[in-house]
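Task: sequence design from structure.
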């Protein structure tokens, strides 16, 4: 009798482990790793930041086993569609153009576009005052697109592969100003490199909705939306927000 019970217990345990393994869906998170404080690579080589904390919280809510994969910004949507990862959490703006290539979740935060420039510089942001200036932005972002759509006839636009490289040229005086997401600029202005610079003018675009991208038609979008609502409702989102910002960005 004891022997039979042992066999039965072992069978049940094996089945339970097998069921658990099947339930833990394996997913890959795509991100850039060069957009602090949202996603960056720390001194140990680990990908960290607000985006990563949100992604991990969503994975925990979905009971999924997730791995972070980095990609150059320019190629991040093609990499998603080539199935190098399953969803993108990289502070990606929801745009009509991108909706042709991917599906988006509900926004997980909202940003604004704002100029920064040297504190000592006379830098007004109306079109007439910007005439002749050199303005930097990251390539394939709404900041770069906004400059091209609105100021290409009066300013010289310099586009960069990463936001960090745009800031390097601002620091060295190779551009007069940078247009970028307000919260990314806010983070850089707190750094040693950014202390000689400041926000210029008011935001030029104040409804930049940021979403998670998945492949077209992927039902994962519904799971992510449900998980996002859950982490907002249970306070997990606020804890992550407060770790990075002294104000709500939701």
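Answer:
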């Amino acid at each position: 009798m004891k022997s039979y019970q042992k066999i039965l217990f072992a069978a049940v345990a094996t089945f339970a482990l097998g069921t658990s393994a099947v339930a833990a869906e394996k997913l890959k998170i795509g991100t850039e790793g060069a957009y602090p404080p949202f996603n960056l690579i720390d001194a140990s080589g680990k990908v960290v930041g607000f985006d990563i904390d949100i992604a991990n919280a969503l994975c925990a809510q979905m009971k999924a086993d997730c791995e972070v994969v980095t990609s150059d910004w320019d190629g991040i949507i093609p990499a998603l569609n080539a199935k190098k990862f399953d969803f993108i959490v990289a502070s990606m703006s929801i745009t009509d153009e991108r909706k042709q290539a991917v599906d988006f979740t509900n926004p997980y935060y909202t940003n604004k576009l704002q100029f920064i420039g040297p504190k000592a510089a006379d830098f007004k942001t109306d079109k007439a005052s910007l005439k002749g200036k050199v303005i930097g932005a990251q390539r394939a972002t709404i900041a770069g697109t906004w400059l091209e759509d609105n100021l290409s006839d009066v300013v010289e636009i310099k586009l960069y592969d990463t936001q960090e490289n745009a800031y390097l040229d601002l620091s060295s005086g190779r551009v007069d100003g940078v247009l970028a997401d307000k919260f990314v600029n806010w983070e850089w202005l707190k750094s040693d490199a950014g202390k000689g610079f400041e926000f210029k003018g008011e935001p030029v675009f104040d409804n930049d909705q940021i979403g998670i991208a998945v492949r077209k038609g992927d039902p994962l979008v519904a799971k992510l939306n449900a998980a996002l609502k859950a982490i907002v409702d249970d306070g997990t989102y606020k804890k992550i927000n407060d770790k990075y910002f002294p104000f709500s960005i939701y």
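The radius of gyration is 22 Å.
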